[in-house]
Design a protein that fits this description.
Number of helices: 1
Number of domains: 2
Order of helices and strands: HEEEEEEEEEE
Number of strands: 10
Coiled coil: 1-28
InterPro entries: Ca-dependent_lectin
Largest sheet: 10 strands, mixed
Helix content: 10-25%
Radius of gyration: 25 Å
Keywords: Coiled coil
Length: 216
């Protein structure tokens, strides 16, 4: 009888340990599912690779390239947004033009042939297996230990226009199918280096700047 009780006690202990292992495993899986990092892929409407999920796709947008009608005003936001292609619109309108969002256009054919005046798409991607993503200006490959998401050309607004942001336009950019002809709005040009305060070498005057988005 005592031997049977000992076996039962041992089985109960083993069962309890298995339950604990299963619980820990479920928690680990749950934690893995919560790991992720997001980034915007400018100039494309799909996410690269099998380890990334599309959060949403849409249109690159920002403030007007010009300083409004008054040449003495230089304000307004400088960052670029990725607007979703399925917006939820309010029923309210505002009669003043204090702050407006314009679609973005590629300027010149430097990004790719026949890209001048085409409208720029974008997509927000989530890396399931990464906890960090970053854009590295001036490179087309990632540092050791980092994974490549996409490469491209560094882009910004024109230096004589409104303030802008630097972003990485994909090396194989797409165009918005329903985009209109040359309407301007929020404009992007390729970026090149200028020697002086920037040491040359390693940089060189007027060379177009690469960029790369990496994850880890």
């Amino acid at each position: 009888m005592a031997l049977l009780e000992n076996k039962i006690s041992l089985l109960q202990t083993e069962l309890s340990e298995e339950k604990t292992k299963n619980s820990n495993l479920r928690q680990t899986v749950s934690n893995i599912d919560r790991i992720g990092s997001t980034y915007v892929r400018w100039g494309r409407s799909t996410c690269p690779g099998s380890n990334s999920d599309k959060v949403y796709s849409g249109y690159a947008a920002g403030s007007s390239y010009y300083h409004t009608e008054s040449k003495s005003y230089f304000g307004g936001p400088s960052n670029t947004l990725c607007l979703p292609d399925d917006p939820e619109l309010s029923n309210d309108t505002f009669s003043y033009t204090d702050s407006l969002l314009y679609g973005s256009e590629y300027e010149r054919n430097t990004f790719v042939s026949n890209s001048d005046d085409e409208d720029m798409p974008c997509v927000v991607c989530r890396m399931r297996t990464a906890s960090a993503t970053l854009m590295i200006p001036g490179r087309k490959s990632c540092y050791s230990g980092w994974n490549l998401e996409y490469t491209g050309l560094l882009a910004s607004g024109y230096h004589a226009y409104s303030p802008s942001t630097y972003l990485c336009v994909d090396s194989h950019p797409e165009y918005i199918p329903s985009g209109q002809e040359d309407k301007n709005g929020h404009l992007f040009y390729v970026v090149s280096y200028k020697c002086g305060p920037l040491p040359c070498p390693p940089y060189h005057d007027n060379r177009i700047a690469y960029c790369v988005v990496c994850s880890k």
